[in-house]
Design a protein that fits this description.
By secondary structure, this protein is of the alpha+beta class. The chain contains 6 helices and 14 strands. The structure holds copper (II) ion.
Amino acid sequence: MSEAVPHTPSCCAPARDAGGGHGPAVGASAAPTVTTVATIAPPIVRMASADGSARLGPAVAERSAQEGGLGNAERTARTEGRAADRASARADATVHLPGGSFLMGTDDTEGFAADGEGPIRQVTLRPFRIDVHAVSNERFAAFVDDTGYVTEAERFGWSFVFAGFLPAALRRGAARPEQTPWWCGVAGAHWRSPLGPGSGLDGLAVHPVVHVSWRDAAAYCRWAGGRLPTEAEWEYAARGGLEQRRYPWGDDLTPGGEHRCNIWQGHFPTRNTAEDGYKGTAPVDAFEPNGFGLYNMAGNVWEWCADWWTTDHSAGHRSNPAGPLRGTSRVMRGGSYLCHGSYCNRYRVAARTANTPDSTTGNLGFRCVRDV
Ligand SMILES: [Cu+2]
């Protein structure tokens, strides 16, 4: 079985090893390798209070109008206020999918054959339940409060943050992967402090949890009585009942000129116009759900799948495929707020990438499934 890495580095998936294997050189005097990201506007995540505390509770579910940092901050705040209410009310919502057969993969000319997006093959799945949303900070906090779980980013002491979200001081000292220099290894960045020291989850309670490794995600799923979806389950769910469409809602990225997912608009990685309403993460129930009632199966954050990565798929019919027996990287699906047509284009429903199971970034989360 081949385990080639994706042919173009995903805009979204630096491996922990890419940070040099010893963590970031934060505070080091060496000049950063790339400085072109300096023009990016401030992030939508607001820094926490001076004591650095980041408590989750009902209070932080209300977003203030000054958040957003977008041209249309008022609209964004209003939308996200409603989203916070909805997502909180349905924090554990799942959908029962009846299983059956679907056509997995694509031969789309816009796709990346080298990523193993094809061939198109018939896959049959048994029924399962899947989370309607990606796991939010609020839900992950409940897990941590209950179990005392410490994430891998906390253990390693650092994680990858998109350079454009960082204050100049942090950006300057940060180590950057050679292939994806818009990522900075930031000491002290983890799920509760997503932009590193001084940042918190204020206003992000119903945004997807990020900086979680595959192992963190699997641990959460076990606690919640579920497991990570297989890649086949994820793709079946993402397609929402449509056959061989490019996106979870159809073939047109912006039907009627309307944005249907949270990806990058503008020029990657220097200018994000946030035309879709978001520069970073969006609430887990932003945008319209797909035909199965599932939110953000394209864009927002990448989602871990259970499978080890391979690009080698047979065209034959498979039942409940679960990927190779072993490997070095785990599958990620869905694309993120950093994906852009000009560079990565991996927000298509058949697009895929992978990362080592201990890797964590600010645009990588997950959702759970349950056997029925
Ligand atoms: Cu991407």
